[in-house]
Structures are given as C-alpha cells and as structure tokens.
Amino acid sequence: MKSIHLSLLCLSALFLLGCSNDSPSDLIEEQNPNVAITYDNTIQSIINNNCLGCHSNPPQNGAPFPLVNFDQVFSRADNGQLLRSISRQTGEPRAMPPSGRLPQATIDLVEQWIEEGSIEN
Ligand code: HEC
Question: Nearest C-alpha to atom 10 of ligand 1 is from which residue?
Fold first, then answer.
C-alpha cells in the first residue's frame, strides 16, 4: 500500500514538473509525428493563441481581416500570406504577430500543414 502511494506521488510530481513550463506552443510541438497536421488538431489553436487578439471578427487594432474559422485561415494559407507573414523577422513590416516571431517549431508546423494541403480535419 505504501509503495502504491509513493509511486502515485512520484507520478503526480513528474506530471506537475513536466507541465509547469509548457506554453501552448510547446504542447503543440509534442504532437505525434504520425498524425497528419490539421486545422482542427493544430492550426486553430496556434491562431487562437497568437492572432485572434487582432484578427477577430470584427478585426481589432487595424488588422485587415478575421482569422476565426477554417475558411478564413485557409484562404490566407492558399494565397501565401499566412506563411509569409509569420516567417518575417520580428520588427519587419507586416511580421505576424507584430509583438514577436513565433517559435520556429510552430512556424514549421504551419508550413507542414500547408505543404500537406491545409486540411481541416
Ligand atoms: C497586435 C495585432 C495583431 C496580431 C496579434 C496579429 N496581427 Fe496580423 N495584422 C495586424 C495588422 C495591423 C495588419 C495589417 C498590417 C499592414 O498591412 O501593415 C495585419 C496583417 C496580417 C496579414 C496580411 C499581411 C500581409 O502580408 O499583407 C496576415 C496574413 C496576418 N496579419 C496574419 C496574422 C497571423 C497569422 C497572426 C498570428 C500568428 C497575426 N496576424 C497576429 C495585426 C495583428
């Protein structure tokens, strides 16, 4: 009984330690590489966490269009603007998000999603 309690304690300690530093983008990077990247499983949360402060509907802070659903994000992926905007360096005109470049691993996920056909689910 004692050892069960101890291992439970260890498990929960590991769990807490393992999670304490995870930002949403870290969590996304840990995704199983065998699962296709989709809007539903990956891209929507990247956009939600980093873009909707301005690209909401209606858009805020001078953003030119909303990015709140698949069709809106898809059309910017399809015309190249999405990847181009997040690939710009911090401080360059029209670098997105304007506050600072996303982690490269997150940009890579968006690039891979587009290369694989920008699927919804
Ligand atoms: C702080 C507000 C803000 C945030 C956050 C933000 N944007 Fe923007 N976005 C803007 C504004 C303002 C413009 C218009 C910039 C311009 O034309 O100079 C813009 C323009 C764009 C454009 C068009 C760029 C172009 O090349 O013409 C794209 C695509 C874009 N944003 C995508 C994103 C994505 C994707 C995110 C999240 C990763 C994001 N934005 C986050 C404010 C924001």
Answer: 63
Q: How far is the CA of 118 from the centre of ligand 1 (A)?
A: 19
> Is the CB of 54 inside a 6 Å radius of any atom of ligand 1?
yes
State if residue 50 touches ligand 1 by the CB under 6 angstroms criterion. Answer: yes
In angstroms, rounded to a whole number, what is the distance separating the alpha carbons of residues 6 and 113? Answer: 43
pLDDT tens-digit series, residues 61-87: 999 999 999 999 999 999 999 999 999
Q: How confident is the model at residue 27 (pLDDT cuts 50, 70, 90)?
A: low
Token look-up 């509907």 returns 57
Q: Is residue 42 within 8 Å of residue 113, measured between CB atoms?
A: yes
Residue length of the chain: 121
118: left (phi over 0), alpha (psi -120 to 50) or beta: left
Give the pair of three-digit tokens for residue 7.
């291992």
Nearest CA to ligand 1 atom 9: 63
User: How far apart (Å, rounded) are the C-alpha atoms in residues 56 and 64?
Assistant: 10
> Tokens in use for 92?
């360059």
